[in-house]
Design goal:
The structure holds three protein chains of three kinds. Chain B is α+β, with helices and mostly antiparallel strands. Helices cover 61% and strands 10% of the residues of chain B. In chain C, a hairpin with a 2-residue loop joins strand 4 (61-66) and strand 5 (69-70). Classes of the chains: A alpha+beta, B alpha+beta, C alpha/beta.
Chain lengths: 847, 438, 230
């Protein structure tokens, strides 16, 4: 031993179990902090990438530019890339009412605009063209890649193009029968007309925000910014999103740090309390207070020197490993295709620094306490029981009800205020942390991935309803059930759903059922009407027909009631009354539109409200949280879902006129949902075959974009749930550590109790009562604080998107139950050890 | 005992010095300050240079635009180009510049923009460097003078101690080298004081011994003189003469024993005697002592019972058999003298990890508590009984202590006295117990 | 020469009506190389006195001079350094550092002073204390007597001028108790150290050069004042 400081290491080695627990605590916290950082960064990167993919990567753009503006921008010292897009003048009509617009862009234009190749290459001359994949078949002569086609060029003149590239299919363009094709303009030869648009980025390092004003002034016509992109880059005039992200992740990291500090503080505090006499002894030997403080800090340094780097490794490889595991266990490698673990030095460095600071912060108070130990302590006896203050007059505790063991437990708990506070504090922190994280992750999940079954749908097949094709006969399905079944049996198919024609109806909603809040917040006023002396309001509704497959999926979203085909056949409907309108202050907010409950009758007016025959009444048999298919939320309409018999009845009630459709309850199309990671190719081939057999059908393929979307959602979920698990582990460790040391410190006292005749069973009951009581008290405050913090987070989150605050019942229950369970079971280990040890031996040892 | 083992000061030791800590703190603060100031200055100076340089460029472009607008545009794009200019164009440019006498050799003073920048930079850096040097020097001087002041105080204090015989008044309790020096100086003065005190004690001891001898010899000498005078006068009959001569003989024996004992004690206490340590069984030494008091014991019919433990010859201890036997003999003699006739003096031995403990137990009246602290003093006699003069016990104690052991009296509740001799297996090393040899 | 000089020492605990005097106007001086026993009933202020002498606790009034230094005029840190260089403590309950072995426990005071111990001296000391074959053992592996010997070794390691012992034999059987007292006497004899022992044991007190008796915080007798030299 070269120096007294080696004592720190010796102590840690001797108390191996506690040291390991502390190190594990540090490791988990640092891992969590670094993972949180990575997650935050990944979220931002992901959003940024998404935005660039969807909106393009340009910063500013100009409409109707003048050639002078183009020249100025070309020479501007701050401009990095400058792209030109000439939007085609006239569209080329094709068969099936499809139109194509040929636009031209220069090289930089392709870089800055959201044009994404599926295969082939981008055009490099004015004779070359890229088109969407689905369009190939629709073009005259159905050319393949590298084929040629004649289309109107941007100036409206027919031109022969060679197709050099194929673009990803866009869902919107297939539905709208309108597609854009792109050709090339050479930048020096570009002619700037009012049809052109300019896009540009600035040189890296330029403060974009400061330049917005200067660039706006360059043109008389409006300059537009890529708002979403700039917002994410933190460069838009309105920096709200980044600020919110910073606040949210700041709060979460702060909580994790707080919990780390609590865990380590706890460990150190107890370690110091245990060694009061030793420190006193060192003082009598002539150790200065600074030396004692150094000893404690040295322990802290050793622990963090081990824990922090390990934590960084665990954080990094933990993320990597969970992704790898996901990929292994059926989610295929597709996870790895789109997800990259971006390595950011600032996250690693930041976590490193934060980890060390947290440990030192936690060790600071115990170190001070140790250094203030009076040397007289060493000379005094170990009788710490004597010095504790005990207030006599207090409200009797609930524990007193369990007899003498309970009374002892309550006295033990109350005897030492500081120890009680430390113990409950750490439990409170753990519970609070869990609740807040649970709340946050759930909300974040809801926000970033508003998911429903639509996400899985990769292919659509529908009858094309162009005017020149005869209307299908009522009641005849577009695709037969056999075909449906065949498709459903293909490998990788998650579900095959039929599409049906939707109806509209006015619902006469009694005034008291309408959510008054909705009208106030959105400024939308529903039309009032009188009926049978009741004050009603008219709210529009969509009536949708779901087949069995769809109803099956719908049961996942059931909030109350049930889905029963018999009830549905008998005038029963499922209702979605949650909507997401734009509020007067410009935010989207989720709220209920009406307050129907299961069993209520809905009065539907299928016509214009004048004909009594057209009034139908249906019963709500189930309420769904959101729409299982199509967009999850409407803005201000109700959605009514039902099965064929009821739907047919409602269809009958429609006023018959010219515009009435003739589909009825016939299937007009189908949607195919894929399993995660399934290979879409065989399904695509099958559907193409089906489409060929039905000449009037149209095949819509957006498997690629579905896959991307779905991946993002799954990634989010992996993140969220692994975080919750880690938080749970940290919290549990903390509680175990605290409760166990609390008990082990009192080994001597328990020996004494045994000496005066308490049986081990009684002691066990006493200790268990204490453990549970700590759980109860901790849960109470933990839930209180947890909900408080969740509300703070909610306020931040609702700045981005509005939704009602929900009390985190689930998390509270889990946390509370876990705390009680851990409180009860963590005392059993030490008790068993005590039971085995010779208590007399221990009594002597501590003397 | 510690040592200043390493001659060289490691960083770890250096750091213990408060002056080093202070200096590093100050230097770190200055470094931070310097970095901040340099950052501020470089920013400011670049801004100034940019401003004047752009003014110059703007003026040039302004005049160019009037004549050759497209050249102006070209110029501007070149201005902020981050790519390195091609070496050819640079060479070409210099060729043109050369024609006008503009070469890199030309002093910067001829470029108004650079000239200002140069003088500004030069003077600011010189000024800054001087200020920083002065600050550093100030702090270093202050720290050194603080150290020197402390050394001076220490020197003054030492001088006071040496010249005016005062206790060391200036003590430094820090962990640095100065603290160690002060601690060493203090230890030195304490040692010095102890040595002086030892000298005083030795002197007093000599005086005491001389006066003891003279006092102890005075009476027998006087009586000897009287006897001899009487005998010389010849007024005594033969019977008396024989008795007188016997008395004289006895007195002379006594005197011889006394002087010898006193001389032994004096030599022992004055450290004039080296023990010749030998690894021999303690039992042998004990037998030797027992043999020399056998006659005395037999006279009083006292049984000296050496218990089994004490006759075990396997108990070996390095000791000087001659002297230790002397000590044992004195203790046994003392026991015999204080024992009633027919009783037993028991000798037992105990071997503990630290000591070999010898106990000599008699069945005499014991020693009253008020005498206990004094019985090892010379000529102290707790009772008029016995023939001793009070030198045996001090002699025994001196010898035992010479062996690095402890001699003590244990009270015995069952009567009698127990002398306890504890001899360590490994005595403290002689070197470290000795006073500094000056 | 007086190594310890105590003058008018008072110590009160508490305030007002609950005030308790642990020491009342205690004055005495102790010479270098004396073996002093402090006796008295429990609660008579013995331990408080020892704490005062060791600079552990501040007196309410009065002075303690050790080697001419006013102990309580020093700063806290300086007092700590003073303690490690000048005073050795021995306690009833041994008070060894459980994680350090015998050798390290003995070296601790020097290590606290950031100095390297003299190996030969330490090894000699361990030999004398009869702990050589146990020098790598932890305190928990030693008997009470052995532990107390380690504590003595620690108190002697830095060769402090003063060794303060608080009931050093209190937890030991008589044989081990004897050994402890003999070792302390050895320290007095061989190193001329000053040893002050608090004790209940009259046998221990009987071996002291001098006995101080305390009652209710007052010094009621001091054998050095009478019976000295006849």
């Amino acid at each position: 031993m070269r120096s007294y400081g080696a004592m720190a290491g010796r102590y840690l080695k001797q108390q191996r179990k506690r040291s390991i627990l502390t190190i594990v605590g540090i490791i988990l916290s640092v891992a969590l902090i670094s993972a949180l950082g990575t997650m935050g960064q990944a979220l931002k990167d992901n959003l940024l990438m998404n935005t660039k993919y969807e909106d393009g990567s340009f910063y500013f753009g100009y409409e109707k530019p003048t050639p002078e503006l183009y020249e100025t921008l070309k020479k501007h010292v701050l401009v990095d890339q400058l792209g030109v897009l000439r939007v085609g003048e006239k569209t080329t009509p094709l068969k099936n009412n499809i139109t194509v617009q040929v636009s031209s862009a220069d090289e930089d234009g392709y870089k800055l605009l959201p044009v994404h190749l599926y295969e082939g290459r981008l055009p490099s001359s004015a004779d070359e063209l890229v088109v969407e994949q689905w369009l190939l078949e629709q073009l005259p002569g159905s050319p393949k890649l590298n084929g040629s086609v004649q289309l109107n060029n941007p100036d409206g003149q027919p031109h022969n193009y060679q197709i050099v590239g194929v673009l990803n299919n866009q869902k919107g363009s297939q539905i709208k029968y309108f597609s854009q094709a792109f050709t090339f303009t050479d930048a020096p030869n570009v002619t700037i007309t009012s049809k052109a648009q300019l896009f540009l980025t600035l040189k890296p390092g330029v403060d974009i925000n400061k330049q917005i004003e200067a660039f706006t002034k360059l043109s008389e016509n409006k300059m537009f910014t890529n708002h979403q992109l700039l917002a994410l880059m933190g460069e838009s005039a309105d920096n709200g999103l980044n600020q919110v992200l910073a606040i949210i992740f700041g709060t979460l990291v702060g909580l994790v740090v707080l919990s780390t500090v609590a865990v380590i503080y706890n460990a150190f505090h107890i370690a110091v309390l245990e060694r009061i006499r030793q420190f006193g002894l060192l003082r009598t030997l002539g150790a200065s207070p600074a030396q004692i403080r150094n000893l404690v800090f040295r322990e802290a340094t050793v622990l963090s020197a081990i824990g922090v780097p390990l934590g960084l490794l665990v954080g990094w490889f933990g993320l990597w490993f969970s992704l790898w595991l996901m990929a292994k266990s059926g989610l295929k490698i597709m996870m790895m295709e789109t997800f990259e673990l971006t390595f950011h030095w600032w996250i690693i460095g930041g976590s490193f620094v934060i980890g060390f600071i947290a440990v030192y912060l936690a060790a600071w108070l115990p170190a001070r306490k140790a250094s203030r130990v009076s040397p007289v302590e060493a000379a005094k006896g170990a009788g710490s029981i004597v010095r504790e203050s005990y207030r006599r007059i207090r409200i009797p505790s609930l524990l007193n009800l369990i007899g003498i063991e309970g009374q002892m437990a309550s006295k033990n708990i109350r005897r030492n205020r500081t120890k009680f506070r430390i113990t409950t504090f750490s439990i409170v922190i753990s519970i609070m942390l869990f609740i807040v994280f649970h709340y946050f992750t759930q909300q974040a999940l809801n926000m970033t991935t508003t998911t429903n079954e639509d996400d899985r749908i990769a292919f659509m097949l529908r009858s094309s309803y162009s005017e020149d094709i005869a209307k299908p006969q009522q009641g005849i399905d577009f695709i037969s059930d056999d075909v449906m079944d065949q498709i459903a049996e293909l490998p990788g198919v998650y579900g095959v759903y039929g599409n049906y024609y939707g109806l509209g109806a006015m619902v006469q909603v009694p005034e008291e059922v309408v959510n008054g809040h909705f009208e106030k917040k959105t400024g939308i006023l529903f039309e009032p009407m009188q009926s049978d002396g009741n004050n009603n309001k008219i709210i529009y509704s969509d009536i949708r027909l779901y087949d069995d497959a769809k109803l099956h999926e719908a049961s996942k979203y059931l909030k109350s009631g049930n889905i029963n085909s018999e009830e549905l056949a008998d005038n029963g409907v499922l209702l979605i009354q949650t909507v997401k309108p734009m509020t007067v202050d410009g935010k989207k907010e989720i709220m209920p539109l009406t307050r129907y409950s299961v069993g209520d009758k809905l009065t539907l007016d299928m016509g214009d409200g004048e004909n009594v025959e057209q009034i139908q009444e249906v019963t709500v048999t189930g309420i769904l949280t959101q729409s299982p298919f199509d967009s999850p939320y409407q803005e201000n309409t109700l959605i009514i879902i039902t099965s064929k018999p009821t739907y047919a009845k409602l269809f009958e009630a429609l006023p018959q006129n010219e515009s009435t459709n003739t589909y009825g309850t016939a299937r007009i199309g189908l949607e195919v949902a894929l399993k995660d990671g399934a290979d879409p190719e065989p399904i695509r081939l099958k559907l193409q075959e089906v489409a060929r057999n039905h000449p009037d059908s149209q095949f819509i393929d957006y498997a690629a974009s579905q896959k991307e979307n779905r991946n993002f959602n799954i990634q989010m979920q992996i993140f969220v749930y692994s975080f919750l698990v880690i938080i749970g582990v940290i919290g549990s460790l903390n509680i175990i550590n605290t409760v166990q040391t609390n008990l082990l410190l009192r080994r001597r006292e328990i020996g004494l109790l045994q000496a005066v005749g308490m049986t081990m069973g009684q002691i066990r009951r006493m200790a268990s009562a204490e453990g549970v009581w700590f759980g109860v008290i901790g849960s109470f405050w933990g839930i209180l604080l947890g909900v408080g913090f969740s509300y703070v987070l909610y306020q931040q989150l609702s700045n981005v998107q509005g939704f009602p605050f929900e009390f985190p019942w689930g998390a509270s229950l889990i946390a509370c139950g876990a705390a009680l369970f851990i409180g009860l079971f963590s005392v059993q280990g030490p008790l068993r050890r005590m039971e085995k040890a010779n208590l007399l031996e221990e009594l002597r040892e501590e003397a | 005992m510690e040592r200043l083992e390493e001659k060289r000061l490691g960083i770890y030791r250096l750091w213990r010095n408060p002056s080093i800590r202070n200096l590093s703190l100050v230097l770190t603060a200055l470094l931070i300050m310097a970095v901040v100031l340099i950052a501020l200055y470089s920013h400011y100076s670049t801004e100034r240079l940019k401003k004047s340089w752009m003014d110059k460029e703007a003026a040039m472009i302004g005049s160019l635009v009037a004549e050759q607008p497209e050249w102006a545009a070209k110029w501007i794009t070149h201005l902020v180009e981050t790519d390195k200019p091609s070496p050819e164009s640079v060479a070409e440019g210099y060729k043109v510049l050369d024609q006008y006498g503009l070469t890199t050799a030309l002093e910067s003073d001829w470029f108004p923009v650079l000239g200002g920048h140069q003088s500004r930079t030069f003077w600011s850096l010189i000024g800054g460097a001087i200020v920083f040097m002065i600050l550093i020097a100030l702090f270093v001087f202050r720290e050194i003078s603080k150290q020197l002041q402390r050394i001076r105080t220490l020197a003054n204090s030492l001088e006071d101690t040496v010249k005016h015989n005062q206790p060391m008044s200036y003590l430094v309790y820090d962990e640095g080298e100065l603290g160690l020096l002060a601690n060493g100086a203090q230890e030195l003065t304490i040692r010095l004081r102890e040595t002086i005190e030892q000298l005083h004690r030795d002197k007093a001891f000599l005086k005491d011994t001389v006066s003891d001898i003279s006092h102890q010899l005075k009476t027998p000498l006087a009586s000897l003189m009287i006897y001899i005078d009487l005998l010389r006068e010849g007024n005594v009959d033969a019977g008396h003469a024989a008795e007188f001569l016997a008395t004289c003989r006895r007195e002379l024996d006594r005197m011889e024993w006394l002087t010898l004992a006193l001389l032994k004690l004096a030599r022992l206490e004055a450290d004039a005697l080296e023990m010749s340590m030998e690894e021999i069984p303690l039992a042998d030494t004990l037998t030797r002592a027992k043999d020399s008091v056998r006659r005395l014991a037999d006279d009083k019919t006292i049984d000296i019972k050496i218990e089994k433990s004490a006759s075990d010859t396997s108990v070996v201890l390095p000791h000087d058999s001659h002297w230790l036997a002397e000590a044992f003999m004195n203790l046994l003699k003392n026991a015999i003298e204080h024992s009633p006739s027919g009783s037993t003096v028991a000798v037992s031995l105990e071997n503990t990890p630290v000591f070999i403990r010898l106990q000599i137990k008699d069945q005499g009246p014991g020693i009253a508590a008020q005498h206990l602290p004094h019985i090892f003093k010379k000529f102290y006699r707790s009772s008029s009984e016995g023939s001793g003069v009070g030198l045996g016990l001090p002699l025994a104690k001196s010898i035992v202590e010479k062996h690095g052991g402890v001699l003590s009296v244990l009270p015995n509740p069952s009567g009698g006295t127990i002398f306890n001799i504890a001899l360590p297996h490994h005595p403290f090393s002689a070197n470290s117990t000795k006073l500094t040899k000056l | 020469m007086d190594v310890i000089n105590v003058d008018g020492l008072n110590k009160f605990y508490g305030k007002g009506t609950t005030q308790v005097s642990a020491l009342r106007d205690v004055s005495f001086a102790i010479k270098q190389g004396e073996f002093v026993a402090v006796v008295g009933a429990s609660g008579s202020g013995k331990s408080t006195l020892l704490h005062m002498l060791g600079g552990l606790d501040k007196p309410s009034d009065g002075y303690v001079h050790i080697d001419g230094e006013n102990l309580y005029a020093l700063k806290e840190k300086d007092r700590a350094v003073f303690r490690r260089r000048k005073i050795g403590f021995i306690f009833q309950s041994y008070n060894l550092i459980p994680v350090l072995n015998v050798e390290e426990n003995i070296q601790l005071p020097m290590l606290l002073d950031h100095r390297q111990p003299d190996k030969a001296y330490i090894s000699d000391l361990i030999h004398t204390l009869g702990l050589h074959d146990r020098r790598k053992h932890l305190p928990s592996e030693l008997s009470g007597g052995q532990q107390q010997r380690v504590a003595i070794g620690r108190a002697l390691a830095y060769r402090p001028a003063i060794v303060l012992a608080d009931e050093p034999t209190g937890n030991l059987d008589s044989a081990n108790g004897r050994e402890v007292i003999e070792l302390l006497k050895l320290a007095v004899n061989q190193y001329h150290q000053t040893v002050i022992v608090i004790t209940h044991d009259m046998n221990v007190a009987a071996e002291a050069d001098r006995v101080l008796k305390l009652q209710d915080g007052k010094l009621i007798s001091d054998t050095s004042s009478h019976g000295r030299g006849v």
